Amino acid sequence: MVEECIVQRKNKKTVYIIIDAFVGPTELDFDMACWLKEHSIPFKVVANKFDKLPDTITEDEVKTKAAQYFEISKSLVFTVSAKKKVGFNKLRDDIVRFLGY
Length: 101
Prior knowledge:
This protein is α/β, with parallel strands linked by helices. It contains four helices and three strands; from the N terminus they run H-E-H-E-H-E-H.
């Protein structure tokens, strides 16, 4: 049902794939990205639980690795932490820009 909704939607669209920053992308995340690419549907990646990573791992490193894994621009990767309440302003701003508000 979700696939049908995404593919058949006529107006502009983008999908945010939420991954666990601590665990890293899973095979299912990769499969979803491949499916979106096959259907020419733009997507971005949200690396959640960024706070669980060791302090030695930077936000830039997480973005770089995710961008390489999904073969997308680093600017399409967001890092967030609900626990520490960080990263949501950038994500929200991106969504608002996309929606044209």
